[in-house]
Amino acid sequence: VWYEDLTGSGIETVAHVRENGRITVLFHAFEGPARISTRAVTYKPQGTVHEFGTPEYDRLIPLENRKLGSRSVIKLNVFKVGTSCGYAVPFMEYKGERNRLLVHNYNLEVADIAAEAPLDLKNTDIEPPRP
After folding, report:
1. What is the pLDDT of residues 52-80, one digit of tens each?
2. Contacts by 59-67 with C-beta closer than 8 Å and gap 24+?
């Protein structure tokens, strides 16, 4: 099991995986009866980090398939899966995916592209790029 880790939410998962290899992923279902579908499933695997640009990362996520802000692949070798009753999980309504992080990362990539553009040294009316 693996997932694409994106820039923008800290890098704690990568730090913890590198520290001791452990990672816990928690899934919830917020609809339906607790006894059947509202279960918390916890993976307690050993994790591996494959950073952007490494052969392992490129093999899992080709350049044309990566999301904006992609920085690594977190790979999980699952050896234990636990379930919980979920009786205390509240009912919630799914309204859709949030896109704020992708918009933020898009703006960063546009700025990076602009910063890498060749300078017109003959034009003295423009400000130099700032770091």
Report:
1. 999 999 999 998 999 989 999 999 887 76
2. 60/2, 61/4, 66/4, 67/4, 67/6, 67/102, 67/105
